[in-house]
Amino acid sequence: MKQLLLFLLLLSLFSSCKENYIDEKQTKTVAQTKLTSVRLSPITLTTAPIPIAASGIIGSKAEINLSFKIGGIINKLYAKETQSVKKGQLLASISTTEIDAQVMKAKQAVQKWERDLARIKKMYADTAATLENVEDLSTQVAVAKSDLAIAEFNQQYAKIVAPVSGRILKRFSENNELIGPGTPVFRIATNNGKGFALNIGVADKDIIRIRLGDKANVIFDAYPTSIFKASVSEIAEAADPRTGVFPIELSIRSQKGKLLKNGFIGKVKLFPSKQDAYIKVPINALVEGYQKQANVYTIQDDRAIKKSIIPLYIGNDFFTVTENQLEGIEQVVTDGAAYLKDGLEVNIVE
């Protein structure tokens, strides 16, 4: 009986040790299978141009706003929108009743002061007037003649004449409207052979990379399958205070059989010629950070190492950072990056 009890006790102890051994082995196996699997991708240092995306409205290369020098009531508009005009052609006039009266008044003033000057000169010859009297009236004659010249000049510009041959793009006013001096009445595109221009705006971080002559591709909704070549022809020195962006003008090359019209909206890809070296990183490596800062992970001794970065440009399948942000790193985690924490042990998948 004692032998039987001893046997059962030993059997119980053996079973307990075996279970503990199995549990410990299973725990290690489970721990190994729970390691996060990741895949690494290479990053590259390059100076390839990064395109700047923008959009803008097409217009004639040379456009002029035409207006009256003086204000008044529009008497007659002789041109319509889209109409072609020739240099010297009368386009508009205002009622000259008021300016004609000013001219007449100035003429009468000149005649009056000239009569007074002639009379005072005779009196001066007879010593009945002083030299000062003669000089004062001479000054009055000169002032009156200046007033007459101003009135006649304004009378001349009570009409609008086409300064160049071209086409009316926009008519801003109608007959019998009261209009102020300098208010545009017509916008005319000149026939000077300069073609069309596309005006876009770029941010301050992009303007420093753009140079005159930089190339661009433009696509218009009217020709969605055609790419129009363009180049930078003008760069603003200051930002537009209304929008905060820097205006850029692109000269567009026309294509045979493709008619361009003012007002077409173009989608632009501008390729800057100046591009500092940068690191190109696969977009899957980007992990959300705080504000402008983001994160990527690299692997060291089978553990994830977090690197904080500030992306310069984010594209469809890659983003860029400056060379010093990932210095000495050749690969980053792409697949599985979203599940990592700094220092976490990982399983690298080839």
Distance between the termini: 63 Å
Query: What overall geometry do the principal axes of the alpha carbons give?
Result: elongated
Low-confidence stretches: 24-32
Average pLDDT figure: 83
The counted number of beta strands is 24
- How many H/I helices? 4
Named CATH architecture of the domain at 52-62 and 192-271: Beta Barrel
Can you list the strand order of the major beta sheet? 4-13-16-15-14-17
User: What structural class do the secondary elements suggest?
Assistant: alpha+beta
Radius of gyration: 41 Å
**CATH fold-level topology of the domain at 52-62 and 192-271:** Elongation Factor Tu (Ef-tu), domain 3
CATH class of the domain at 52-62 and 192-271: Mainly Beta
Percent strand = 35-45%
CATH superfamily of the domain at 52-62 and 192-271: Efflux pump adaptor protein, beta barrel domain
Order of helices and strands: HEEEEEEEEHHEEEEEHEEEEEEEEEEE
Sheet with the most strands?
6 strands, antiparallel, barrel
Residue share in helix: 25-40%
Task: Give the topology, please.
Layout: H1 2-33, E1 36-38, E2 40-42, E3 44-46, E4 52-60, E5 63-67, E6 72-77, E7 84-85, E8 90-94, H2 97-125, H3 131-156, E9 159-161, E10 166-171, E11 178-179, E12 184-190, E13 196-202, H4 204-207, E14 215-220, E15 223-235, E16 246-252, E17 265-271, E18 278-282, E19 294-300, E20 303-309, E21 313-314, E22 318-322, E23 331-333, E24 346-348
Parallel strand pairs: 1-24
Antiparallel strand pairs: 2-23, 3-18, 4-13, 4-17, 5-12, 6-8, 6-11, 7-10, 8-9, 10-12, 13-16, 14-15, 14-17, 15-16, 18-22, 19-20, 21-22
Helix pairs in contact: 2-3
